[in-house]
């Protein structure tokens, strides 16, 4: 497709003073080179370092760079969802501030968007690209999460958690106004909800650079992602099935009934 189209790029940011400047320079370079009209929206989520000041310096120099700043933290997912609903351009995307995926990788997604509503990057599907270099435990965790996601939701997406996605503008309201997860499993809920409302999704390999630094321990990430994913399964699968007149605890497989029982207890414990 002709890439000289308009685009809104959302970049979530929380305490990104070390990375946000380079991220904005690189994203601006991409937009100037590949798009006829654009806006870069930073979804700042209550940073307590110099992130906001650095972003404001950019916004003063270029009005196409916009800041949405939130004093009370929404979480990465909440910040992205809030910013997505403000985007104005024909295509809307989001990416991480650490440049794990270079914005020029959006070219790979645009190659597929003509026939789809959403195109998402993948760190697990490789095609003719080399494998992503990262610690073995990270690779193992990603594959286990992928297997669990496909088992729970029966959706043929391998890397729902990749924070590099492209959307048609017209699907944004229905999709993001219904998002409930604001933490780790936000990306997975986006994919699940998109399938539930019949949107067309394509997953494509992208070049991804693993960033060593992380603000949260691996153990905490595993715990929180597990909790969030089970919550998404309960909200988006069990309740969806019941509203359709199908009751998994009565008509589903044994595995589904066990999961339903467990999730019912889990849901009650969190309410």
UniProtKB/TrEMBL annotation:
Pfam families: Glycos_transf_2
Keywords: Endoplasmic reticulum, Glycosyltransferase, Membrane, Signal-anchor, Transferase, Transmembrane, Transmembrane helix
Broad EC category: transferase
Catalytic activity: a di-trans,poly-cis-dolichyl phosphate + UDP-alpha-D-glucose = a di-trans,poly-cis-dolichyl beta-D-glucosyl phosphate + UDP
SUPFAM superfamilies documented for this protein: Nucleotide-diphospho-sugar transferases
Pathway(s) per entry: Protein modification; protein glycosylation
Protein's cellular compartments: Endoplasmic reticulum membrane
A single GO molecular function term of this UniProt record: dolichyl-phosphate beta-glucosyltransferase activity
Membrane topology classification: Single-pass membrane protein
Domain Glycosyltransferase 2-like stretches: 8-175
GO cellular component entries: endoplasmic reticulum membrane
EC number in record: 2.4.1.117
Family according to the record: Belongs to the glycosyltransferase 2 family.
Record's protein name: dolichyl-phosphate beta-glucosyltransferase
Organism: marine metagenome
